[in-house]
Amino acid sequence: MLAAAGIAEVGGLGAAYAWRALAFLGAGAAVLVLGLDAHLPHRRFGLANQLTLLRATLVVLLLAMIGQPHIPAAFAFGIAVVAASLDAADGRVARSSGLASRYGARFDMETDALLILVLSVLLWRRGVVGAWVLAGGAMRYVFGGLRVLVPRLDAPLAPSVRRQAFAVAQVVALLVALAPFTPPLLARVAAAAGLAGLLLSFGIDFLASWRASARTA
Question: In this structure, which of 34, 108, 127, 208 has its CB flanked by the most CB atoms within 10 Å?
Fold first, then answer.
């Protein structure tokens, strides 16, 4: 609450922002607690998950800005850069400490997906790019929904450096587009390039899931 109140004060966002951020943080905390069984057999939450939690908190603070009539672009960009930078640390810390888990991997992935969604919406709200930029933010959730609705697509996907690289590239592209000092044309080019890469990556995963299910049918 203190962080949300501080950001509301510094960014001139008002009390409604702080309460909205608190509600989102409370909902996120409930989801984390409900999923703790997946963290077994590790008994400690671990530094890696704490870093991801910090990153997720920053993403939620950005999410709460979406309902504001005015979004402080430089302030939002700074928070987004810090959140994105922390992504390079949590996985490495988990592996080096021997506390890697399905819980941590899922927590990290969902935080990445939410960051991409929030950055896409913030960029669209700025009016620099069209609503097409939202496709990148929605892609993870559309693909997940398809895997639930179409059993044939539910084949497990192996860890992929390509998938991670395209996700990172998408975040970087959105950050470039969101930066207050980026010219509108460059912002649109960066956002379009990031979206194209993400479409390619999800297309590869879609075909891989389809072919894997065909082989086991």
Answer: 108
Sign of CA dihedral 196, 55, 123, 113: positive
Round to whole Å and give the CA distance between 9 and 7.
5
Closest C-alpha among 214, 70, 88, 79 to residue 155: 214
Domain count, the chain: 1
Q: How far apart are CA 208 and CA 97, in angstroms?
A: 32
Question: pLDDT per residue over 31-41, tens digit each?
Answer: 877 766 665 56
Residue pointed to by tokens 């690289």 = 165
Q: 């490495």: which residue's tokens? A: 92
Domain extent at residue 16: 2-216
CATH of the domain at 99: 1.20.120
**Neighbouring residues of 186: CB distance < 8 A, sequence distance ≥ 6:** 176, 177
- State pTM to two decimals: 0.87
Residue in the structure block whose two tokens are 């299910």: 213
**Cβ(195)–Cβ(136) under 8 Å?**
yes
Structure-block tokens of residue 210: 């389809």
d(CA 146, CA 169): 24
**What does the pLDDT look like over 145-192, one tens digit per residue?**
887 887 777 767 777 788 888 889 999 999 999 999 999 999 999 999
Using CA of residue 134, residue 187, residue 60, residue 163, what is the dihedral sign?
Answer: positive
